[in-house]
Amino acid sequence: MRAVRTSITVLVALLVVGLALPAVARPTSDLVQVTAWSPALEMRGLEGSAAESVEGLWSEFVAGAPAQAACLLANPPRIEAKWDMAPRAAYAPDTATLFVRPNDLSRLVVFHELAHHLDFTCGAADAVGGDLRAAQGIAASKPWWKHGSPVTWPAEYLANAVAIALGENRRHGVTGEAGEAVEIRMGRGGAAEEATGVLTLDHPGPELPRLT
Hints:
Structural class: alpha/beta
Strand order of the largest sheet: 2-3-5-4
Oligomer: single chain
Mean pLDDT: 76
């Protein structure tokens, strides 16, 4: 019995260490493999191929942010269809809801909005907010969200930087220093050491705590 408890402790420790390890310029598939862990997404108004597309994008997003994978899987967003919405997609932090148009599920648009979920759910503003503001030449006192024009919000720069890390080819005004800070936060790269091995997220085991 003691040997079993020791083995479980070692496995948990390895998982925690694996989540914390950063990676440099490695493809998403080399960082994390999401296998038997269900996306556990609550979807409203989405079905068929649209629902499958969203689930696939969510799994790819989680795999692309290995340092935040445990937080994201424990706290998935709600996805809700909104056909008459003016923007292509939108995120509501108060309810952790991503609104999408089912006929416009652009990979990079969805990733930008999922980045807002990562931000508000997993504490990006606290973790990287100071570095990102400095790298973008934004005053340290500027609020993170909903202050002035949306293109000046630090939260928007972060979401753009996350989308860039996952394949966006337009810079959207994000500086290299800001992008590097965000990639390190995601566990993908920057000046950090390259991760060794692959973290596989399999069956979740005990129910994970959810943020409220």
